[in-house]
Design a protein that fits this description.
It is built from 26 helices and 14 strands. It is an alpha/beta fold. The chain has three domains: about 250 residues, P-loop containing nucleotide triphosphate hydrolases (Rossmann fold, 3-Layer(aba) Sandwich); about 130 residues, Orthogonal Bundle (Helicase, Ruva Protein, domain 3); about 110 residues.
Amino acid sequence: MIEYHKIKTLKQLEKAGYTSKTVKEELRDNLIEKLKKGENVFPNILGYDNTVIPAVQNAILAKHNINLLGLRGQAKTSIARDMVGLLDEYIPVIEGSELNDDPLDPISRFGIDLLAEKGEETPVAWLHRNDRYTEKLATPDVTVADLIGDLDPIKAANLKLSYSDERVIHFGLVPKAHRGLFVINELPDLQARIQVALFNILQEGDIQIRGFKLRLPLDIQFVFTANPEDYTNRGSIITPLKDRIQSQIITHYPNSLEISKEITKQEARLSQAQKESVHIPEFMYDLIEQVAIEARKSEFIDQKSGVSARLTISAFESMVSAAERRALISGDNKTYVRLSDLYAVIPAITGKVELVYEGEQEGAQSVASMLLGKAIRKQFPTYFPDPEMLKRRKEADNPYVQIIQWFSKRELDLMMNDSDKEYQKKLDEVKGLDALLKRYHPQSKDEQKYILKELVLHGLGEYSLIGKNSMEEGMSFTDILGELFSTSPEDFEE
């Protein structure tokens, strides 16, 4: 075990028996070690255990550069960032080197000259793996100078050097990432002529700047990310560049609601006050994830654009914040998320989906409301009998009859800012709800009981057994026939 803090010179480094490795060798060796120990190599990445992660590991073992191809919100950048954990914790560099020169094999003019001057006394510094990660978002304004480098006239003037001296070069991000990871996000957005500049680096490991005959054998692990939509909308990865990226790995959205829930729980950022004051029933997580599932198959949403996992994360945070706000206004120290809080996530949905023409005609707000309704309708039969199945079987023992009859003469308004006491009192007035819960959820108690009661009303509303109307300050539940008769002729014309 090398004691990094004690090694300050090349002589001490050689005496300690240090041997150089390429970045790809580092990644491969450390991955092998983790796999042998049965460690989770990408602990923060969920849902890819049998698909993307094995493909990434195969690429690392093969010492390939990688392109992660997938729709937005599929953890492409997170995978790239987590690869840092497979680098050695520290590596030695020539102190003061701009290009992280290996003391045993420098490539820059600075490193070569210093080694020639100092010999075994060449000063050595230690670079942590977190400082060996470089990330660049590809945008149309990125230049070759940004990535590769250019001549620096100020440096030439200060050092009194001619433009033929390579010391006047100002290196770009790629050379400065020598012996590290370099990530380019949204590669298709990079102009074609800029992509051409990467050819030699990927194939030969060297660079060309303004005609200089430089031979810089750069040691870099490249990871690119790309969205397939970009290939047609904004740009493309040119064929010769794709040919030089050895592994292209396709990412995807979570394959199950359970995995989606775990991702949301992991990524959502709740304050400590929210965690302490707002209780979140488990099935509210299910409803949030169901919204994304419905969005990913909606005819109103552009499926080529995708529905990011950020939608459910933002929606979840908005839902909890709505419950917290209500508690603050009503004076309750603690509260719980209600079904009506689900409608507070509409702003999180409208900003995260791309609508097709039909969706634009409906309007973003209406599409978001429809998604919420479909999510409730899908999840409702998980907790109570499916009203559609009851209709088909023509069962005489319909458990919802008493509730529907109650609404034939009355209506119920659940306001967003109702205190917990007001909310519970209103739900207790609806005849048939207690009997339904006693029959299907006899163990429910306290807040869970009232959330299930509200779920019944929303579910019956989605199955058109009672009327359900959105108001500015909440939700109104009425008789379905009364709702039809109250509809104006203008509504039908629309």
